[in-house]
């Protein structure tokens, strides 16, 4: 029998908290040698080592899909880079692990269980490098459905706290707690039902979406609460916490496929907070295909109440 989700989430939360601390400990992150268009830093690998370690040690039967692998790390940063990560991981965990441990954890992809961890160790690496928002994201997917999620948001300011963790899932609810420590408090999506005050979120990076389409939808639906651009799944966290009503992520190009780890954690949390997550045609996202979400032209996340209104404004695109 697999461990119950509630117990699993306790371990994931501890790992996300440590991984978030590791990211902040890298004061002035450097981008490693370019890998395609996607930047990556030593903190990405350190964060992934900490999270996947929790899967490998506590839940070895669970599968893992994760953004990074050690081959590129070794190629771009060599043994010296790995040694730096070992120091970061040991400082964050208060333990003594080796280079071999770190490499093994980064590459661990789990057993043959029905549960999958979808891990983005630093979602929004471009935001992380700019000093803007980023998230440490772990989604738990079971039979193609995101059932639980944890988002570490080290630079997200909510109330008097800078740095929060959101977690939850359908049937669990959604919770926020300060990364610095403190008890979890329930959160819920906003109660706004009409377009006039509806607040919209989108990516900072124009290349990650289609800002012109977002603008058309705002105009057509008369969404009057403003449009704020934020990096990473912090956008999902903001909708879950009632700080915005709508996150629109149109497909950036015909051949782009959204990554499972960019959505699984956020989708579970927003649904736990009472919101709704579909593709731009109102269909459920298909989380069964492994690392990518197939058959959609983008993702729509809302507080639920304004979902159909936005879908209506999307139909003519
Ligand atoms: P965001 O910060 O919300 O813009 O999203 C960050 C994520 O965008 C990264 O984790 C990447 O997986 C993803 N990404 C990279 N290139 C693209 C692209 N061309 N279209 C959509 N998403 C992308
Ligand atoms: Mg990402």
**Strand sequence of the main sheet, in spatial order?**
1-2-3-4-5-6-7
Structural class: alpha+beta
CATH superfamily of the largest domain: Fructose-1,6-Bisphosphatase, subunit A, domain 1
Q: What gyration radius follows from the Cα positions, in whole Å?
A: 19 Å
Give the percentage of residues in beta strands: 15-25%
What is the CATH class designation of the largest domain?
Answer: Alpha Beta
The biggest sheet, with number of strands, parallel, antiparallel or mixed sense and barrel status, is:
7 strands, mixed
Describe the structure.
There is one protein chain. This protein starts with a helix and ends with a helix. The chain is about 35% helix and about 25% strand. It contains 9 helices and 14 strands. The chain has helices at about 5-25, 40-60, 70-95, 100-105, 125-130, 210-220, 235-240, 265-270, 305-315, and strands at about 65, 115-125, 135-140, 145-160, 160-170, 175-180, 185, 200, 225-230, 245-250, 260, 275-280, 290-295, 300. The protein has a 7-stranded mixed beta sheet with strand order 1-2-3-4-5-6-7, sandwiched between helices. Strands 9-8-10-14-12 form a 5-stranded mixed beta sheet, with helices on both faces. The model has no long low-confidence stretch (mean pLDDT about 95). The protein folds into 2 domains: about 5-185, Fructose-1,6-Bisphosphatase, Chain A, domain 1 (2-Layer Sandwich), CATH 3.30.540.10; about 200-315, D-Maltodextrin-Binding Protein, domain 2. Magnesium ion binds near residues 120, 123 and 262.
């Amino acid at each position: 029998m697999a461990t119950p989700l509630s117990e699993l989430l306790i371990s994931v939360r501890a790992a996300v908290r440590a991984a978030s601390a590791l990211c902040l400990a890298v004061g002035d992150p450097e981008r490693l040698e370019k890998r395609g268009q996607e930047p990556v830093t030593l903190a990405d690998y350190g964060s992934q080592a900490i999270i996947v370690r929790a899967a490998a040690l506590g839940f070895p039967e669970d599968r893992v899909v994760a953004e990074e692998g050690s081959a590129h790390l070794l190629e771009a940063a060599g043994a010296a880079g790995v040694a730096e990560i070992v120091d970061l991981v040991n400082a964050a965990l208060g333990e003594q692990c080796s280079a071999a441990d770190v490499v093994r954890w980064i590459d661990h992809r789990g057993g043959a269980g029905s549960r999958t961890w979808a891990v983005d160790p630093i979602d929004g690496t471009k935001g992380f490098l700019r000093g803007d928002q980023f998230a440490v994201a772990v989604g738990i997917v079971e039979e193609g459905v995101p059932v639980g999620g944890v988002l570490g948001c080290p630079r997200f300011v909510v109330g008097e706290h800078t740095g929060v963790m959101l977690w939850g899932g359908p049937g669990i609810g959604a919770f926020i707690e300060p990364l610095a420590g403190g008890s979890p408090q329930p959160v819920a999506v906003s109660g706004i039902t009409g377009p006039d005050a509806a607040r919209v979120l989108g990516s900072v990076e124009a290349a990650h979406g289609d800002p012109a389409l977002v603008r058309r939808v705002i105009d057509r639906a008369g969404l009057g609460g403003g449009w704020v651009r934020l990096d990473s799944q912090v956008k999902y966290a903001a909708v879950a916490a009632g700080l915005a009503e709508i996150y629109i992520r149109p497909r950036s190009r015909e051949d782009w496929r959204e990554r499972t780890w960019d959505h699984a954690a956020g989708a579970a949390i927003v649904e736990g907070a009472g919101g709704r997550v579909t593709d731009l045609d109102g269909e459920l996202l298909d989380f069964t295909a492994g690392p990518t979400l197939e058959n959609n032209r983008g993702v729509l996340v809302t507080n639920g109440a304004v979902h159909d209104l936005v879908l209506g404004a999307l139909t003519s695109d």
